[in-house]
Amino acid sequence: MSLNPSLQLPIPYGRQEITKEDEEAVLQSLRGAYLTGGPTVKKFEEAFASYIGSQYAVACSSGTAALHLCSLALRVKPGDRVLCSPLTFVASTNCILYQGGNIDFVDIDPSTRLMDLDLLEKKLDQAPLGHYSGIIAVDFAGHPIRMDRVREIADRYGCWIIEDSCHAPGGSYQDAEDKQQQCGNGAYADLAIFSFHPVKHFATGEGGMVTTNDPTLYERLIDLRNHGITRNRNKLIEDHGGWYYEMQVLGYNYRLSDIHAALGMSQLNRGASGLAKRTEIAKIYLDAFKDLPMKLPLIEEGHAFHLFVIEVDNRKDFYKYLRQHEILSQIHYIPVHYQPFYQKLGWKKGDFPLTEAYYNACISLPMFPTLSISQQNYVIDTVRKYFIS
Ligand SMILES: Cc1ncc(COP(=O)(O)O)c(C=O)c1O
After folding, report:
1. Same domain, yes or no, for 204 and 348?
2. What is the CATH number of the domain that holds 350?
3. How many A from CA of 1 to the centre of ligand 1?
4. Which of 71, 226, 253, 259 could be stapled to 95 by a disulfide with Cβ–Cβ 3.0 to 4.6 Å?
5. Residue 389 confidence (pLDDT)
6. How far is the C-alpha of 297 from the C-alpha of 144, rounded, in Å?
7. Number of domains making up the chain
8. Do 208 and 261 meet the contact criterion of CB atoms below 8 Å apart?
9. DSSP bridge pairs for 181
10. Is residue 166 within 6 Å of ligand 1 at its C-beta?
11. Is 257 in the pocket of ligand 1 (CB under 6 A)?
């Protein structure tokens, strides 16, 4: 097969875009006075909060650190029970285990692939009041979960909410009052989190953010990401002078450096154009595959298209075929309850049949803003040949 060199094979399922402006922003940061602990982190937080529509944003070292900070700020304690969909990356649920809490799962709605909110309600209804303390709602693949409905359910059962919006910065949905709500904007969730891993919408290498509208949680997050240390004169128990600080709670070093924040700021400038490109790619795929024997994603207004996941029969063979043609598709995700660590906690195959049926068929095709037209055409032709030849 003679291929056009501009195809740049292999084609990954996702990848970062680094522009000259990004490089310049990082260089400027390297030449500046602060590599960490400087003003760029605050600027990035303010710009991110403004992009997402939340009141506060707290930058940290990864999406996983963001999740752990949330469970610390919400004071998750040993024995607490928290609900989440098994269709997510393990970090979404591990953050509760870090604090000695327990995870319980709610199966997905196969049409949206999000936590089934009717099943969530049923599960909460069947348990004694107070049995569950929180809900982690994931905007899987970029499909915004209806947070107004999650809030309404959570309130009835006294649960807090973390929205895992790693896949959905810039995504939005219309709430019951016909208001357009941005994923992670804090209108309904107590806390929301994002990741800046290279395959995500904004890449800093490693990095994460927590957003919230709650000033108390915000204050806690600020201290927790820096060892639990405060310098806030109003909060100090004693005051020995300008140098004085107190470690009042047990925290971590989950800070983001100014170098990473500079890259994040620069990437954030392309938020809207990146989202528009992802949407365009999704529309082209949907049109190209509409006659093929596969299940296409349900696309609703406001979808953020982190992933483009199709469901096919004989997935293993299809995955192998794509690899042979240098298309590096991925599987999102192996259900959390399949992981040996979670199986040791008592979960087993068969517990969440809808997630498991999805897992047996799912495969993510290349989806990233710099996917070229010729690359996408190559993916489309290759996929079509598999089904039609
Ligand atoms: C849904 C979800 N939650 C959490 C994370 C964790 O983010 P990070 O890799 O930045 O720790 C990821 C990213 O991999 C993710 O996809």
Report:
1. no
2. 3.90.1150.10
3. 37
4. 71
5. 77
6. 13
7. 2
8. no
9. 173
10. yes
11. no
Q: How far apart are CA 190 and CA 332, in angstroms?
A: 26
Cβ(71) – ligand 1 distance below 6 Å: no
Residue 2, pLDDT > 50, answer no
Name 180's Cβ contacts closer than 8 Å, sequence gap at least 6. 172, 173, 174, 302
Please check whether residue 12 lies inside any domain of the structure: no
HSE-up of 187 (CA within 13 Å, CB side)?
20
Nearest ligand 1 atom to the CA of 88 is 1
Same-domain check for residues 278 and 170: no
Give the pLDDT band of residue 204 (cuts 50, 70, 90): very high
Return all residues near 178 (Cβ < 8 A) that are at least 6 apart.
Answer: none
**What is d(CA 10, CA 44) in angstroms, rounded to the nearest whole number?**
33
Q: What's 128's DSSP letter? A: P
What are the distances in angstroms from CA 81 to CA 101, 195, 383? 6, 24, 43
Q: Which of 202, 237, 268 is the last residue of a domain?
A: 268
CA-only gyration radius of the chain, Å: 22
- Ligand 1 pocket check for 91: Cβ under 6 Å: yes
The predicted pLDDT at position 112 comes to 98
Residue 3 in this model has a pLDDT that exceeds 70:
no
Measured between alpha carbons, how far is 271 from 276 in angstroms, rounded to an integer? 9
pLDDT band of residue 1 (cuts 50, 70, 90) is: very low
Asked if 264 and 294 sit in the same domain, the reply is: no
Give me the residue label for tokens 């794509």. 322
Chain mean position to CA 241 = 42
Residue 13 covered by a domain = no
In this predicted structure, the answer to whether residue 180 has a pLDDT above a threshold of 50 is yes
pLDDT band of residue 6 (cuts 50, 70, 90) is confident
φ/ψ of residue 342, rounded to 5: -75, -30
Q: Is residue 54 part of a domain?
A: yes
